Amino acid sequence: MDKKETRALLEQVAQGKLTVDEAVLRLKRQPFEDLGFAKIDHHRALRQGVAEVIYGASKTPDQIAAIAAAMLRQGQQTILITRLSPEAAAQVGTQVKLDYREMGRIGIVGALPRPDGLGRIVVASGGTSDMPVAEEAALTAEALGNETLRLYDVGVAGLERLLAHLEELMSARAVIAVAGMEGALASVIGGLVDCPVVAVPTSVGYGAAFGGVAALLSMLNSCASGVSVVNIDNGFGAGYFASMINHREA
Amino acid sequence: MDKKETRALLEQVAQGKLTVDEAVLRLKRQPFEDLGFAKIDHHRALRQGVAEVIYGASKTPDQIAAIAAAMLRQGQQTILITRLSPEAAAQVGTQVKLDYREMGRIGIVGALPRPDGLGRIVVASGGTSDMPVAEEAALTAEALGNETLRLYDVGVAGLERLLAHLEELMSARAVIAVAGMEGALASVIGGLVDCPVVAVPTSVGYGAAFGGVAALLSMLNSCASGVSVVNIDNGFGAGYFASMINHREA
Amino acid sequence: MDKKETRALLEQVAQGKLTVDEAVLRLKRQPFEDLGFAKIDHHRALRQGVAEVIYGASKTPDQIAAIAAAMLRQGQQTILITRLSPEAAAQVGTQVKLDYREMGRIGIVGALPRPDGLGRIVVASGGTSDMPVAEEAALTAEALGNETLRLYDVGVAGLERLLAHLEELMSARAVIAVAGMEGALASVIGGLVDCPVVAVPTSVGYGAAFGGVAALLSMLNSCASGVSVVNIDNGFGAGYFASMINHREA
Amino acid sequence: MDKKETRALLEQVAQGKLTVDEAVLRLKRQPFEDLGFAKIDHHRALRQGVAEVIYGASKTPDQIAAIAAAMLRQGQQTILITRLSPEAAAQVGTQVKLDYREMGRIGIVGALPRPDGLGRIVVASGGTSDMPVAEEAALTAEALGNETLRLYDVGVAGLERLLAHLEELMSARAVIAVAGMEGALASVIGGLVDCPVVAVPTSVGYGAAFGGVAALLSMLNSCASGVSVVNIDNGFGAGYFASMINHREA
Amino acid sequence: MDKKETRALLEQVAQGKLTVDEAVLRLKRQPFEDLGFAKIDHHRALRQGVAEVIYGASKTPDQIAAIAAAMLRQGQQTILITRLSPEAAAQVGTQVKLDYREMGRIGIVGALPRPDGLGRIVVASGGTSDMPVAEEAALTAEALGNETLRLYDVGVAGLERLLAHLEELMSARAVIAVAGMEGALASVIGGLVDCPVVAVPTSVGYGAAFGGVAALLSMLNSCASGVSVVNIDNGFGAGYFASMINHREA
Amino acid sequence: MDKKETRALLEQVAQGKLTVDEAVLRLKRQPFEDLGFAKIDHHRALRQGVAEVIYGASKTPDQIAAIAAAMLRQGQQTILITRLSPEAAAQVGTQVKLDYREMGRIGIVGALPRPDGLGRIVVASGGTSDMPVAEEAALTAEALGNETLRLYDVGVAGLERLLAHLEELMSARAVIAVAGMEGALASVIGGLVDCPVVAVPTSVGYGAAFGGVAALLSMLNSCASGVSVVNIDNGFGAGYFASMINHREA
Amino acid sequence: MDKKETRALLEQVAQGKLTVDEAVLRLKRQPFEDLGFAKIDHHRALRQGVAEVIYGASKTPDQIAAIAAAMLRQGQQTILITRLSPEAAAQVGTQVKLDYREMGRIGIVGALPRPDGLGRIVVASGGTSDMPVAEEAALTAEALGNETLRLYDVGVAGLERLLAHLEELMSARAVIAVAGMEGALASVIGGLVDCPVVAVPTSVGYGAAFGGVAALLSMLNSCASGVSVVNIDNGFGAGYFASMINHREA
Amino acid sequence: MDKKETRALLEQVAQGKLTVDEAVLRLKRQPFEDLGFAKIDHHRALRQGVAEVIYGASKTPDQIAAIAAAMLRQGQQTILITRLSPEAAAQVGTQVKLDYREMGRIGIVGALPRPDGLGRIVVASGGTSDMPVAEEAALTAEALGNETLRLYDVGVAGLERLLAHLEELMSARAVIAVAGMEGALASVIGGLVDCPVVAVPTSVGYGAAFGGVAALLSMLNSCASGVSVVNIDNGFGAGYFASMINHREA
């Protein structure tokens, strides 16, 4: 409850339109719906006007379907379900109409919104193994109203593949750089473009890759300015963050 | 050299205005000035129209002054020198006119540009010990043409201090959250605002703070969406990144 | 054997009521029953008057049932079995009467004692995935004679959910804060309440959560005073510790 | 501002005793005094009635003296200054009357309060090198109104030293166990006593002690129930936490 | 080939009893039998006169049986097979006569030798979960000709259990201390006895036990003198090392 | 596109043989074939004249077979498929003629080239468990045109096994030292030979081997000069690197 | 107080030679002298009949001198002071007669005892930088009544240096292997000798040596049997442990 | 002593030219000169015919000068002294004629040999802070008879700087890639060239650079083939290794 609302509330009390008890109650009233196993924050949904997100990893298909149904009842147009396994997707799909994208392990309920961002978000990834995380990022961005361009398999060991797309990179409003192993992609792109680069380390690799730690450290130490980092394999976080950059009113 | 410049060059060759040898030479000509100990990239300076940055930590005062002088000769209006110790600042100041801000260990040559961003960048920090990093972030953002608001000493252990500034936080175009120890500030702010939060872990703390690792991990694992992270103590990186967010043409 | 018992023993020897050999024997006599695979410390059970605990993770269902039976024979009223899988619970249940709580993976033999603590223990958890650990803590506290209040899904990314329960938090004798990912919940609660906060990091999260390490470090570095920490996922330890705080004679 | 205060405020508005503008202002008024470099939370001071604490490590002697003076002006009886070097203490002492305890690096302004806790806090430490941290804990507890008993140099390698004090240990309301190296003291005491044990790992040791990490891990994995842990070398935190345990109204 | 053998060889050459070519060949002759997948060092077997050891973890049952058969052909009396799963044991048992001890995952071919050491080796373990590693150590010691005494479930959280066996501990020639979690057992025993303590950290525990790292660090930092450490879960190594201590001619 | 090609292109433009638009297009043309899920760099294949490599771990059998078929169409003589499981190999084998070597998990399409290197590459490994990695290295080297010699089971605990092959080691052009556990093999060989030693740590071991980290650190800290290191279990990388050393024109 | 002493005490009570109060007092009497800053365990000194040890690192010269004087008063013949800096040695030397060995940072008060062990202890070290730790080990062993042989600068990179001393190594009762960097010395010696090898990792090295961690891990993972490990740089611990091995009654 | 020498020795014995005692003595004679504090291996020096190396970090100036003098007496033409501080260099310079290169902390005694390698070694470094390590590598290579080319300040954040030198890179026999921070330089160069790349991580950077660990991991995980890695800051090791590659007879 911000200052303006507080003032309005107090004025109602001052004018006798609201009793003190009612005001106390209203100050305490929760802006979320409680389903028992989850509290749905409808304020956030309305505020953004785009997709609401369900983190699917720790929920049963029944819970996911119930949350989605509640959101639809509240008038939500687009619902994004992340970390959704094919098995769970099959079950959810029996209860709500679901567009499932297996590569990114993402389910979409409702239509994707029309892009309304300031520009385009480029999602670049190093190798084929990084594609699931890249897809999670790209689909998230699209569900939040962004135009995206995918540049996959442009790892730095074959620099010409990346340079072949220099123009697209340089015209982006934000770039999401997805890479495992040594994670150099973020630094190289960061040195080429003038827009923010959101780096996503992936757990791709073996041995001293340490489940994404090598890529994470590499990206945190990028010698290029204009690079920030999200958690290992957090494609959703990168897509969400890039969408904020790409919208004047995030 | 981008596509447009390549085309122009080729057209000059086609029109006989440029010999093949000259073209080869030009294609190889380096867009930076070589001072022996450093290569200054004037392209980047011109492209951004705002401040050029000198990383002061690994350079002698004489080197810093020489680089700054070269930049001024190229017409640079504002030069930001980061990680500048008071001793080095005193020496640099004998050779170029320097505005030194000790808290953020930053020296400024020339005038700060007028803010021309989309909105305001809020720089919030947890404790007094985090202030040097916060100042580095704030001054960097200002040198790159941003209006800033500093909210210092608003750590989560005294939540009322942070909530007292909710309005300012919610009206920001980007928030830079600077915190050491457990780094919870980023998550709490990330849950309150709707704009991108750039988190800067600091090396403040002792014992299991591990020189900023605890805060770094905390920020990478933020349960709030819309948070990305830069390196420990990298106030400059956060200011630079937030400035990109705050400018349509970064 | 404490000083008073030693004195009594010596007096019996001095009075000729006890031979030297018997005294030596008694000094060596073990205050525990040996089942072959485990030694049951009946002193501890009697001393506390409340529940005896069986750590179920490393024992077979038969061993668990045998230990519980031996405890019941000694007159134990309540027995708490932690880390008990549904499969093992089913098997144990065929041998002793068992109240199994699946969420917290806890089995209870006998009735829960009436609360006799100084106040109430609040168990707060960040997300739905943290609930198993939170339940282990809450059930442990209840089995040890405490009134508890559960506040689940009050993570710091939605601060209003937590603040809606400020009154309950502030009236607690102790708070158990259960959180994974960045573990900020402990710090935020620590800054709000004036009672001890026992923090339990959970292994919830992925990537740089490192199986609970991020939350553990975050909690150890809490900027709020009055926070101490137990091992990752150690809900039992937190419930036990909070119960000690909540009892004059722990 | 808690619920009762909110209600009182609203009633004043309803009764016309307070204008809406004044109410808004009051809701925003910060319950702390701003000295520029630090915000002093007087609410907290009044609430606890005992000592206010200044963390000395990151402040100049002038800042420390200024904060202490402000606290005294507010009527604070006892002020505890932690992590205060002898040099800083000498300087602070020229501005406020200071009782400096070098071993624990603690300065005390005003008189120590009379103990008013439920029982006694025992501070046990492993070796002579752990004494500074143990003293920080003991002095903190005393400044917060607790009777303490120091048992130093009772490391587990000479078990008879510890067992010689079994009676004192068993009669404590809380034990603070301070140990570096392998940190086994916490487990051994935890197995002997029935009150809460607050374990403080210290950075004492070399090689694979890793600045306290070995002791920290050892304490987190204590096989004894009733042990919780604070940060490495955090004697203050342990004293503060134990004091909360030892006071009905912490 | 030691100095004495070299001299004998050279004297044979000098006396014309051996040609130069034969001598070169003999100097190169390998003292081991090559089975293709493994080289068996018969010198070592003969030298020690006791058990030969086969590390079972990385070999197929057929390979194990073949190696054992070759050893028997060479006259080996006792063969110890470590890290042998019940499944593999069943298969090996169809080819050679095998005494399988499941708890320690050890198979024995031939008879255990009569103890011929200087004294007795005590194997102490902290909890029931540590028993497999303790058994591996005890059986290894027995196979190498040592009398052993097992003291299991004597963890430091119930000190009286350990102290009840003080006499046995103090009369040992060497103690093997096996413990997971915080590994304090090694320090406590090391402070009680005057013989060498070989500490074996186990991977028992969860969370911050980090698969035995906490116990390992704890043991390396033991504040008691006379403690040395082997790898996590390396019961065999501890039994072997203790046997060397217990034999004048190891 | 190197300098010479650039000059040729420009000359064609200058001579009117190529329009500006065509030249721009050609400068952007990619030197690789795009199969949708992978981009094949035929330049690299032609340049080296030997085997092309497919990293099998992250590809489906169908993808592997399709890539191999495309390579064969381009005239590739030898194709090496690494990290190929027996199951995948069986499937790939139904589509292309495949020589599968299970120990090294490598599939070969086409004939192995005749060795054309400067000398011989010796592949030495510590224990039988290291053999899969050693085989990956040896087969890679052979596929790239090198003569190899395998010295397996020559770990430093039985130094005589290694010294028996001193002559072969000293006559190598490069040695690949493959070892897990403590990884001492690289240092010992590095001290014996005068050629480059490429060290491959393996994930063989348990406990404090930490999945190859112990061997990795050991090898990086080799006290012998002339040792460099590749990633844990990276037999392919070592074979590739050694082949470069063994060819004047790598 | 062991069983025999307890019996004697009880018999005195039974015979009326000792009152109950006196017995209680005696049972509580500490077998150590309390100097305020340290408790001296005279029992241990008498028990071993050889040198008593003072850990010098954390004590002032005055404290060290006072402890040594108290020990001399109790009749101690030899006192070993470890981790004694040259500056502290100079000061201690003004108060007690001190034989200071700078290389091993050890001071000796009184005469070294005559060797009375079962055999000889060989102290081998890898490089010249490891010599201080090796000297600490060797002098400790000598002060505890052992004959020693030093083999320094026999690192595995020059294997011939080590092999030149094979005979001395093979005739030792115990070998102390001191090495930094990759720590391979322990494995190589462990493979050559049949006596126990006590490995001491040193903090010698840089970069990925991580202050001795690389050597520590290497030694813990030794592929040779019969190797155990002490803390990084713990020469004293190795000397003490090897002395126990070398004495029937340690 | 290799096989040929052994045969010659044995033939002398067979021919009566050498007594058995003399032969035994000779077999044991050490191929190095013992200066007390160091053993100089003259065999190695003669074998390589180029520079002998003294690791200066752990030696006193007097020791360094003595070793150098002994080497000169043996006829060594070039002596390389690494890790030599300016202060030590000044002192050494008073005893032997020394050419000191401060940037690389290297001293050279005697003349640099004429290059006799197969090709040229390129030393590329990321930033100015990496130059000391790069110089150590370059000077080492030159002292071992290699032609070198230095490409400094060619970090991947300004890719055009690196691409401007593509021709030099592609014509190298080996490239040494020196980089701190994220260490991406090795991968990018590895993708551009066809010769072996020896990667040297440096300790340049701050925060999550962890003293070179980030760069080390990045390089170990390089997605480009043909990259191997040496220890952090080990310029000498890289120069030595590259020289071996560049010489048929290393």
UniProtKB/TrEMBL annotation, chains A, B, C, D, E, F, G, H:
Single Gene Ontology BP annotation: 'de novo' IMP biosynthetic process
MF (Gene Ontology): hydrolase activity
Record-linked InterPro entries: P2CMN_synthase_LarB (IPR039476), PurE_dom (IPR000031)
Pfam families: AIRC
Residue span, PurE domain: 119-250
PANTHER family listed in its UniProt record: PHOSPHORIBOSYLAMINOIMIDAZOLE CARBOXYLASE-RELATED, SLL1489 PROTEIN
Stated name of the protein: Nickel pincer cofactor biosynthesis protein LarB
Encoding gene (name): larB
